[in-house]
Amino acid sequence: MGTSDQAASFLNKTEIKAGDMDHRKKINFNIGRYNAVVPQGKQQFDNVNLARERAKNIKWRALETLDQQLERFEQIFSNNGGKVIWAEDGEAALQEIMLICQEKQCRTIVKSKSMVTEEIHLNDFLEKQGIDSVETDLGEYIQQLDHEPPYHIVTPAMHKSKEDIAKLFHEKLQVAPGLSPTQLTLVARDKLRSKYLEASIGVTGANFIIAETGSIAISENEGNGRLSCSFPKTHIVIVGIEKVIPSLTDLALFWPLLSTFGTGQRVTTYNSIVSGPKQPGEYDGPEEMYVILLDNGRTNLLSNVKVRESLYCIRCGACLNACPVYKNIGGHAYGATYSGPIGAVITPHLKGMREWNHLSYASSLCGNCTAVCPVKINLHEILLENRHETVLEGDPVWMEKIAWRGWKQASLHRKWMNMGNYRLKNWVINRLFKGWTKHRADLNFPEKTFNQRWKERTENHAAL
Questions:
Q1: Which helix (H) or strand (E) element contains residue 431?
Q2: Which of the pair, 283 or 320, is modelled with greater confidence?
Q3: Which of 41, 204, 237, 355 has the fewest CB atoms within 10 Å, counting from its CB?
Q4: How many degrees, rounded to 5, is the angle at CA 458 between CA 452 and CA 462?
Q5: Rounded to an integer, what distance in angstroms lies between the CA atom of residue 40 and that of residue 38?
Q6: How many independent structural domains does the chain possess?
Q7: Of 396, 416, 434, which one is at a domain's C-terminal end?
Q8: 391 and 409 housed in the same domain
Q9: Per-residue pLDDT tens for 12-43?
Q10: Residue 32, domain extent
């Protein structure tokens, strides 16, 4: 594993969080609630594995023809009165948003939950420009009040208990201490409702881009996304280019998969399809609508055949809930927008392998992430591929190289493995190579080698 500043920060954070039993109790409780209902959601499928396989094939076809799908979306969406903006990176997307804000003389933006906007740090950028960007998803609103990024792809405040949130609302909003979850929700709704009327621009992400109809699809459970894209006069959608699917009928498969594997629901409460600004004769909807198609490193993944399938991800969060590493160190330890197994896979390619390759080593390679992925991404295999690329780039430190060469030679030559007694071997492994025992118990060799035990076994059988 590399020794970058990011890697050092990651190790420091994980050391603290792994020993925080209160944190572990909260996250395991909240993940446990999801894991308890996911099997119930799966019952809506006659053959859930076949559904996952079909979804993977659809995403494969979409990404293999990505240029055609996106151009088709742009043409149809433009014909519907919308405007498409192509952004090569986060900075380009932010500048385009700023130009729209200046044109509309915008001072307040309402924003629904979007990991892509977290990826480009939109709220921080707008705050520096003197624009009030208000998170309207309850979990994101809680995190914004606490000046923290989302902890989880689906549940931004998963690491907070109801007592933590009550304390936060008391401190930040000057409400009575010790409010119940229902009361806290009503407080948030009261604070946020007026913002929809003040805002001249609404910002959303998109769960899917539909090429066939020039539409974007949004899934949510609170209705804030629907309000954000309909109340303000201008609607801006920021979405990664990988979210495209070919046909409107594909939603009949992807919407249930997303809800089932994400939250255990048969389908999320609100599912919206938006195909452009309001048309002549329509009373509702924005007067203008922009879709910003963001690359920001995604073509790096697309160009790498061995890791390309990570772009199939529909951001359900199932791999985070299944990952034993994530459940011990939490989302913020990763130091990146996307945490858990999918974050460990894509972040090195989105942000730079040399600085972020350590995330691909933050895995037990148990394969549970692959087993629960609704689109069957081979996450554990891609983690290994990332590690392989790290080695090819010459990143491992010289001591690590020497250690693995020695282990390889000993493994290939049994006589070498048998040299020395077990005490000497224990000393070499546990004292000379201190990296192993820094966070683990000592690795102790048995008193007798395998060859000795095998010889004794065969001699005893021969004697019988």
A1: none
A2: 320
A3: 355
A4: 145
A5: 5
A6: 3
A7: 396
A8: no
A9: 999 899 889 999 999 999 999 998 999 999 99
A10: 1-43+319-396
First to last CA, the chain: 52
Question: What tens digit of pLDDT does each residue of 291-347 get?
Answer: 999 999 999 999 999 999 999 999 999 999 999 999 999 999 999 999 999 999 999
In a domain, 234, yes or no: yes
The Cα 218–Cα 204 span in angstroms is: 8
**Rounded to an integer, what distance in angstroms lies between the CA atom of residue 315 and that of residue 325?**
18
278 in the same domain as 130: yes
Question: What's at 101, amino acid-wise?
Answer: C
**With 0-12 CB in 10 A as exposed, 13-18 as middle and 19+ as buried, what is 292?**
buried
- Is there a domain that residue 75 lies in? yes
Q: What is the mean pLDDT of residues 167-177?
A: 96
- Whether 155 and 282 share a structural domain: yes
Q: CA 376, CA 50: separation in Å to the nearest integer?
A: 11
Q: Please tell me whether the overall predicted TM-score, pTM, comes out greater than 0.85 for this model.
A: yes
Same domain, 374 and 419: no
Alpha-carbon span 262 to 73, nearest angstrom:
27
Q: Are 113 and 225 in contact (CB under 8 A)?
A: yes
